[in-house]
């Protein structure tokens, strides 16, 4: 197939860590033999870039025959609607459906009605906007465990303390950096030699070293869709402490050495203490549990959605031609 991907989150020199999971899907599609072009909407620079990218979508789909236009995130679907002669698939990732911005949620709901198919990354999102549930996958060839001491030496992190990894932008209020910081401060008050390490805009290929250098991943968000960071940490065989948001319950189900807890600094600190020993144990089986989220399996499901959409689109096209000729 020939696919045009339209997204407002994708790795770039300005933001190398942005939308890595979209990039991974694109790369997997290419490995499967599909041709994928990408329009990266730099909406964080200027909202006018959405209009400019609408013109890019028109130009590219008029000049070349695309089988599918695939938009990632609700806002990205608006430029994608200016496509020519190709069905539209939208993947919604979390904030566009669950976030506190009422205008964004409304825009997402409206544009989803014009799609030929909607993919959502968790069951909780599907209850808001109907769609096919396909959580983002993880590239197990990239996200794999490295030796902790080598990873810390590479990153310049201290070797003699517990490291709690917070791989989110502290400026995003829904990620609750304040709570993560308070939780680790509680550990320090309890004489645990711990440090919160925040990682933002790190290239995707470097993230496995960050996960491998840590003793635990901490996610204490107000809301999530299907947090890729949890899958990546587990693929690197690192324990996770998380609030019950998105599909976290399903992701961590049955994995000893992980914890789900309420948004309370004292409780989070206690759960972190409990999982620290697991990070240094050969019994932790986080990576094995991520086989079901292998990126290749995820993309196979997405290609199945493409095939269904194309079949229906072509049938409608033939039907319209018959009506005109009749």
Low-confidence stretches: none
Rg over CA atoms: 21 Å
Report the span from N to C terminus. Answer: 31 Å
Q: Determine the mean pLDDT.
A: 92
Shape: elongated
Largest sheet: 6 strands, parallel
Order the strands across the largest sheet as they lie in space.
2-1-3-4-5-6
**Level of helix content?**
40-55%
Strand content: 5-15%
Helix and strand element order: EHEHEHEHHEHEHEHEHEHEHEHHH
Number of strands: 11
Tally of contiguous helical segments: 14
User: What class would the helix/strand composition place it in?
Assistant: alpha/beta
Properties at a glance:
alpha/beta, 5-stranded parallel beta sheet, 11 strands, 6-stranded parallel beta sheet, 326 residues, 43% helix, 14 helices
Question: Can you tell me about this structure?
Answer:
With 326 residues, the protein is an alpha/beta fold. It has 14 helices and eleven strands. It has a six-stranded parallel β-sheet with strand order 2-1-3-4-5-6, sandwiched between helices. β10, α11 and β11 form a beta-alpha-beta unit. α1 crosses α14, α7 packs across α9 and α8 crosses α12. The longest helix is centred in the last third of the chain and has 31 residues. The radius of gyration is 21 Å and the shape is elongated.
Summarize the structure.
By secondary structure, the chain is an alpha/beta fold.
How do the helices and strands line up, and which of them pair or pack?
Blueprint: E1 2-7, H1 20-31, E2 35-40, H2 48-63, E3 68-72, H3 77-80, E4 88-92, H4 95-98, H5 102-112, E5 117-120, H6 123-126, E6 132-133, H7 148-155, E7 162-166, H8 177-189, E8 194-198, H9 207-213, E9 216-219, H10 228-235, E10 240-242, H11 248-252, E11 259-260, H12 265-276, H13 286-289, H14 295-325
Parallel strand pairs: 1-2, 1-3, 3-4, 4-5, 5-6, 7-8, 7-9, 9-10, 10-11
């Amino acid at each position: 197939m020939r696919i045009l991907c339209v997204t407002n989150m994708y790795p770039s020199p300005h933001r190398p860590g942005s939308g890595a999971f979209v990039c991974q899907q694109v790369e997997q599609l290419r490995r499967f033999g599909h041709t994928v072009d990408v329009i990266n909407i730099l909406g964080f620079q200027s909202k006018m870039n959405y209009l400019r990218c609408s013109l890019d979508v028109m130009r590219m789909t008029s000049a070349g025959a695309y089988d599918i236009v695939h938009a990632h995130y609700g806002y990205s679907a608006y430029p994608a609607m200016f496509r020519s002669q190709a069905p539209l698939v939208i993947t919604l990732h979390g904030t566009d459906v669950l976030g506190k911005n009422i205008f964004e949620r409304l825009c997402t709901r409206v544009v989803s009605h014009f799609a030929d198919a909607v993919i959502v990354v968790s069951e909780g999102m599907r209850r808001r906007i109907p769609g096919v549930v396909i959580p983002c996958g993880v590239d197990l060839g990239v996200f794999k465990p490295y030796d902790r001491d080598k990873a810390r030496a590479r990153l310049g992190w201290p070797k003699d303390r517990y490291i709690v990894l917070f791989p989110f932008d502290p400026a995003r209020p829904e990620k609750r950096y304040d709570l993560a910081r308070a939780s680790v401060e509680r550990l320090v008050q309890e004489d645990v030699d711990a440090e919160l390490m925040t990682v933002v805009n790190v290239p995707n290929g470097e993230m496995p070293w960050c996960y491998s250098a840590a003793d635990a991943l901490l996610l204490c968000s107000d809301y999530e869709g299907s947090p890729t960071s949890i899958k990546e940490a587990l693929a690197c065989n690192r324990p996770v402490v998380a609030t019950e948001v998105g599909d976290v319950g399903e992701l961590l189900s049955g994995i000893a050495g992980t914890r789900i807890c309420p948004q309370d600094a004292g409780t989070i600190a206690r759960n972190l203490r409990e999982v620290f020993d697991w990070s240094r144990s050969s019994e932790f089986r986080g990576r094995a549990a991520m086989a079901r989220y292998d990126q290749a399996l995820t993309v196979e499901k997405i290609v199945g959605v493409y095939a269904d959409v194309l079949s229906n689109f072509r049938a409608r096209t033939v039907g319209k031609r018959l009506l005109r000729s009749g």
